[in-house]
Amino acid sequence: MTVLTDQFTEELISIDLHLRKAVYGLRNPAASIAAYHFGWEDADGELTEANSGKALRPLLTLLAAKTVAEEWRAALPAAVAVELVHNFSLVHDDVIDRDEFRRHRPTVWKVFGANDAILVGDALHALAFETIAEADDAHAAAAARLLSRTVRTLIEGQFADIRFEGRTSIDLAECIAMSENKTASLMGCATALGALYGGGSQAHVDALWDFGFRLGTAFQHIDDLLGIWGDPEATGKSVYSDLRSRKKSLPVTAALRSGDPRAEELARLYHSDAPLDDAALDRAAELVEACGGRRYCRESAEALVEEAVASLRVRGLDAAAVADLGELAASTVSRVR
Amino acid sequence: MTVLTDQFTEELISIDLHLRKAVYGLRNPAASIAAYHFGWEDADGELTEANSGKALRPLLTLLAAKTVAEEWRAALPAAVAVELVHNFSLVHDDVIDRDEFRRHRPTVWKVFGANDAILVGDALHALAFETIAEADDAHAAAAARLLSRTVRTLIEGQFADIRFEGRTSIDLAECIAMSENKTASLMGCATALGALYGGGSQAHVDALWDFGFRLGTAFQHIDDLLGIWGDPEATGKSVYSDLRSRKKSLPVTAALRSGDPRAEELARLYHSDAPLDDAALDRAAELVEACGGRRYCRESAEALVEEAVASLRVRGLDAAAVADLGELAASTVSRVR
């Protein structure tokens, strides 16, 4: 991501400035709690320069706009709205999952309490719609429609995620659908909104939605790999984080459903009540890999990125902008190489 | 309210049908949890006929539409959206306040857990915007703008409410501003949206907003009176409910700020750490009344209802519809007589 971040400096700065303007338009305490979440301020309200996240989704919106229009700035309200929805869902998800750290910093509920986190999430959610509605152009109704359906889908994914925790057996299809709902739908929305605000045709909007949705699915698959084999320095999570919490992520589900005889040992480890010690974690990771879960997940992600790029083979898109999106897509998968 | 409910049967049935259609359009588990919240189903998903609430806000939307148009059905999406926002905020507020009962039934978080309650609230919030955006008419952008600003205001009110709990001294102005943000803004939004969808002019929309906002402020004042002197059978709360929880509601704040020497005894009761026993609760209620808090609150509500009705003295509104709104407003205050 670093290369691309350097490449799109102008777009990323625009996103950052517009996002700050929108969030600081909230009244306190909502503004300062949100500013903490975004890494702009510490818990005492002092400006800081923490990691604000990758801004991948709003960048996708602007790059998508560039496939249909030279001027990408018209898509800034949509880019900001998408990033607000993403962050509203992060703040609420952290409450729900009781996650204590995000981007190497204590989560909002951990610092300000769950009540404030619920309210700030609600404020960012409403602010997303306000940002689109205030832009007051011809796209507001279509954008609100797309965004509200996307939030509904996000929530379906989050409900599925919660329900999976209480179940011992998950189908591969259910697991993929959950990733699509939780992650891919918002990335599809991000790119579709870019095409919409860029003035693209319905065919363009649909093509960009397909691109974003497939890329988003690939992105979640890669995240699932990083949840097991990611570098704790980079991910901010512990080694084998997802195995430790017995998360039914794609590599694990694929391994459990592989039909490989070693899957039974993995199932026993996953379904026992005892906390997994280091040896058990090593063994679980080994078994996921031996049963083909790691390879399945990586190959699926690679295939999805190819499909994503193929979605953009429609008439009338700008070749340079399409190439940028292809490069961004490729860099997403290369995170695990 | 009963008389009015009988009077507007057709409108109330329309609201109910459209609201059910929207909510049942959510996927499970969100749909069935929301259906439980609305009193349509019990916790096992069996249809039931519990008290769904008064549907006051969506009724206000439709009656407001009737002041500018014969056909009120065009305003149904707005009425549904307003009711969805109201209920999203109730579900989240119950989590935040740890309230265990609403409309004489266990609250959503109490039955399904806080995580499901957060997610269902989010789903209802998004569904409100979806309902407006899907209606796809000329008013979608303006309605989304008004609704999103209103949610932001609602959240400001809820933040203030939380912050008040940790403070010993509240100004009367702060207390009133909190009621305006938490309650009046959504009622102003409800009536303004009715005028907007009815095709009213900006002057009509503004007048209806004023009406709803003032009525909403009065409504909250009356609720504050009922929180102390309400009949537990009717309110579903314990006797002296707000005193028991030492809530800084308007009658209490007005009494504490009255300058009456007896306010000091009330302050001592309110600021002590010991739970208030029955004798202390009786005494606190007596002191609020002796210091003029009860009268101040009732008189403010009556004045606000008069101002609300006066807001409707603009050219071009339908006299019969204005009379209906006036009657509804009067019935709100008569709850405490």
From TrEMBL, chains A, B:
<dbReference type="InterPro" id="IPR008949">
    <property type="entry name" value="Isoprenoid_synthase_dom_sf"/>
</dbReference>
<dbReference type="InterPro" id="IPR000092">
    <property type="entry name" value="Polyprenyl_synt"/>
</dbReference>
<protein>
    <submittedName>
        <fullName>Polyprenyl synthetase family protein</fullName>
    </submittedName>
</protein>
<dbReference type="GO" id="GO:0008299">
    <property type="term" value="P:isoprenoid biosynthetic process"/>
</dbReference>
<comment type="similarity">
    <text>Belongs to the FPP/GGPP synthase family.</text>
</comment>
<keyword id="KW-0460">Magnesium</keyword>
<dbReference type="Pfam" id="PF00348">
    <property type="entry name" value="polyprenyl_synt"/>
</dbReference>
<keyword id="KW-0479">Metal-binding</keyword>
<keyword id="KW-0808">Transferase</keyword>
<dbReference type="InterPro" id="IPR033749">
    <property type="entry name" value="Polyprenyl_synt_CS"/>
</dbReference>
<dbReference type="GO" id="GO:0004659">
    <property type="term" value="F:prenyltransferase activity"/>
</dbReference>
<dbReference type="GO" id="GO:0046872">
    <property type="term" value="F:metal ion binding"/>
</dbReference>
